[in-house]
Design goal:
Elements lengths: L2 E8 L6 E4 L1 H7 L6 E10 L4 E7 L4 H13 L15 H10 L3 E7 L2 E2 L5 E7 L8 E10 L2
Antiparallel strand pairs: 1-8, 2-7, 3-5, 3-8, 4-7, 5-6
């Protein structure tokens, strides 16, 4: 029989850039360890930050991702939406280029990410504050 679990995760404040948050997600949903087969969906409740799955082994990867996003949507462009600061509209563009959610298969209590994959928060604001995620786990669980 299929079961659903939903958890709100409040992340600590991160500086602008890409940050590995896999451990934050796993710590917040300990019942994942009892999931025999399922799917974890993680959604971010913000329009100026995003989620992505990418390489988690080399610390140059998140730095390079952040640098690339900054070049794709620089603060120096003549944005019209500036009422929340010069980093706000570029943050919305970066969020549109990445994603508001990730879905990951689960088997035998583990995320089936690849060996070198992790979940990243892409913080696009200079001071984004604490970010809220909704983690929905659907699957078959041990008794």
């Amino acid at each position: 029989m299929s079961e659903w679990n939903q958890t709100e995760i409040v992340l600590p404040e991160f500086r602008r850039g890409c940050h590995l948050i896999t451990s934050h997600v796993l710590d917040a949903i300990p019942h994942l360890r009892k999931c025999r087969v399922g799917l974890l969906h993680v959604f971010i409740q913000h329009t100026s930050a995003s989620l992505t799955i990418n390489e988690n082994a080399d610390p140059d990867v998140p730095r390079d991702l952040g640098m690339a996003l900054d070049r794709l949507a620089p603060e120096s462009w003549p944005w019209q939406h500036t009422c929340e600061g010069p980093d706000d509209m570029p943050a919305h563009v970066k969020s549109a280029l990445t994603s508001t959610s990730v879905s990951i298969p689960v088997s035998n209590g583990r995320l089936l990410t690849g060996i070198w994959q992790g979940i990243y928060l892409c913080e696009h604001r200079n001071r984004g504050g604490r970010r809220r995620l909704i983690a929905t786990l659907q699957g078959e669980f041990e008794n």
